[in-house]
Design a protein that fits this description.
The protein has about 350 residues and is an alpha/beta fold. The chain has one domain: TIM Barrel (Alpha-Beta Barrel), CATH 3.20.20.70. The protein has helices at about 40-45, 75-90, 145-165, 180-185, 200-220, 240-255, 270-280, 295-300, 310-315, 320-325, and strands at about 10, 15, 20, 50-55, 95-100, 120, 130, 135, 140-145, 170-175, 225, 260-265, 280-285, 305-310. An eight-stranded parallel β-barrel has the order 3-4-5-10-11-12-13-14.
Length: about 350
Amino acid sequence: MRQLFDSIPLGHSTLQNRLVMAPMTRSRAEFDGSPGALAAEYYAQRASVGLIVAEGTQPSEDGQGYLNTPGIYTDAHVAGWKKISAAVHEKGGRLFIQLMHAGRMSHPDNTPHHRQGVAPSAISPNTPMFTLNGMQDIPAPRALTTDEVRQTVADFRFAARRAIEAGADGVEIHGANAYLIQQFFAPSANTRTDPYGGSIENRARFAIEVATAIAEEIGAHRTAIRLSPGMALWGIDEGVEGPDLYRYLVAELDKLGLVYLHIMHQGDEALLADIRKRWKQTLILNRPGRPRDQIGDDVTAGLADLESYGQMILANPDFVARLKADAPLNEADRSTYFGGNAQGYTDYATWL
């Protein structure tokens, strides 16, 4: 575990350790998408990790899926994120904002324009979602036109520029967890016949275009991406070609020189090894449910350069100090994950 506490270069910065706070939706933003009043305190409390990846943040009105998630495309959004960036930097931390377009994982009641969600194809995820009116089935999305796909790439580019204006050290593209980019990967969600559907190359095209556009706009040294190969969630099925799609995609993304790749690992060790071979830059690995006694194993084994954690850091703002001292960890309160106030957000006790 000792290697976890070593500094490591990332882009034009140096991280104070190899621990990463994974992005976690907390649904505490204002209804207009501006970060909530306690967000700067929440993130600053956890700035002792090497890198904070902030919660999924929509790049456009169409990108919102859930209630009270933040955006990064208006002046008000930028003003709110400036407070967060400054608070994290004051504590010596580094902050990447995750750009998340929910795609079909959206309900009209949750968005500012109350329009139907958009996706690669008009295929429902067949799952309910929490709204202001309680749990409701997600309606079938509207399929993006080819021109609208290209406009969505431009929306990501614009949001990335706004994130840098807000003081973020970079952005992480959310290409995981059954949201828009992974929807393009999966034949169960993408039946397009234009250049964004069909072959592996076509289904990977949108992700590559988004990454290329953002790297051109803010620099590859500030552009990262998160993937979850093999994740089967909310109707996502990547099919038998799934592993080969990721082998192709990672190799193509590697050519862009992005600052890091963040993998949410689903258990295919052979694919993970292939990704490691294809990716020349920094690799962050997240293993959901990793027990405490395995923290640091992937860095020690050379499978990853950094390791990311979610719930443990959510519940332990002094996570790094607790690991160093082998101190007990707080348990996360699941009932306070989404929405609410300081309870379960900024009031977790520190060890010392």
